[in-house]
Amino acid sequence: MNKTIDFIYFNAGGGHRATALALQQAIEFERRPWKVRLVNLFEVLDPKASFNKVMRCAPEDLYNFRLRHGLTLGLSTELKLFQAMIKMGHNTMVRKLEQHWLDTKPDHVVSLVPNFNKALYESVTNALPTVPFVTVLTDMADYPPNFWIEPNQAQHLVCGTARAAEQARAAGYADEQISLTSGMILRPAFYEQAEIDHETECLELGLDPEKPTGIVMFGGHGSSDMLRIAKALPDIQLIFLCGMNATLNKKISALKPSARHVVIGFTQKISHYMQLGDFFIGKPGPSSLSEAVHMGLPVITFGNAWTMPQERYNTNWVREQGVGLVIPSLRAIRKGVLALLENLPAYQDTVSRIENRAVFEVTDILAQLMSRADTERAAVALR
């Protein structure tokens, strides 16, 4: 009989749902005998959309608005307030989630979200004690306390960096409760790249194939910082991936740079455009950094007071791995790009040595945990 696996996500930032979709696609590609359900946590907790009716927007819309406009200063304080609200509503959330699990009866529950893992764990354990609960971190590291890793829970953690695994051990998890993958989860499409005629593809976009091209991307909602980058680098070939930010697209397209600037709106062909690039510029999000490195692109990213708290370790990761440069602000973007280009072959060589198969490793981990749970249930039944 096919197992049912629930991936818990929400739409704050986009990376959580993207990870759920990536795992779903990998499971389909591998023909695993599992029924996959994507479960929006906020729809379970607020099925009547009461927040939407009062505020006229979804809870995550406020967060995403701030990302689009670069309004990230002070998020550390707001996170603490948000976590205090979660703590106040903990018992109510647990009851709602318990009823959801009893109604839907999953065989495996996988959290791809931070902040709610205590309520998720307790609700699964209370309602369905034999069902495994797993948290897959979609950030490179935890931002304790009570962000990704809740101390001493009898659950499994999947970590994409050695730093996250260390944090799990420090929180009381045994080695057998922790799986370390070779990186962050990427969509299977990043492993299915067809050979391209680089020169022809560049020429079709108006790019000079003999000159280095930068890929500029700030997540699925873009950022006003991309416009400032376009103005600061008028003589550098760039491809701007603006996502769903149509206003940003128009503003960058209206500029008159001396070098070719290609502006792309929402697209599913991120990996294709990265094939045309030589380096990457973007915020230190775990997905965008990992995608760039996987596609062989050295990175330029930012570390300052505006860096989101859960992404601050990512800048350390860039330095530790030697895959690019971390600059303090957009004022240093031109200097940073010129420094990277001066040593581009060396950075590209370092990037080429990193291999990330995390999305397929996670499906193997889940299969092992399911098998272990079946064995444990059978042993209990024989007693």
Describe the protein's architecture and organization.
By secondary structure, this protein is α/β, with parallel strands linked by helices. It has 17 helices and 12 strands. The protein has helices at residues 15-29, 41-45, 50-55, 59-68, 75-88, 90-104, 117-127, 162-170, 198-204, 225-232, 246-253, 270-275, 286-294, 312-321, 333-342, 344-352, 358-382; strands at 3-9, 34-40, 108-111, 133-136, 156-159, 178-180, 213-217, 237-241, 261-264, 279-281, 299-302, 324-327. Strands 2-1-3-4-5-6 form a 6-stranded parallel beta sheet, sandwiched between helices. A 6-stranded parallel beta sheet has the order 9-8-7-10-11-12, with helices on both faces. Helix 1 (15-29) crosses helix 17 and helix 6 crosses helix 7. The longest helix has 25 residues, at 358-382. It is globular and about 75 Å long. The mean pLDDT is 91.
From the structure above, extract its key features.
globular, 17 helices, single chain, 6-stranded parallel beta sheet, alpha/beta, 383 residues
Brief summary of the model shown:
Helices cover 46% and strands 14% of the residues.
Name the helicity range.
Answer: 40-55%
Helix count from the secondary structure assignment = 17
Provide the spatial order of strands within the biggest beta sheet.
Answer: 2-1-3-4-5-6
Q: Average pLDDT, to the nearest integer?
A: 91
Strand-pairing-aware structural class? alpha/beta
Number of strands: 12
Order of helices and strands: EHEHHHHHEHEEHEHEHEHEHEHEHEHHH
> Which overall shape is indicated by the principal axes computed on the Cα atoms?
globular
| Strand coverage percent | 5-15%
Largest sheet, described in full? 6 strands, parallel
Measured between the Cα atoms of the first and last residue, the distance is 24 Å
Question: C-alpha Rg, in Å?
Answer: 22 Å
Low-confidence region ranges: none
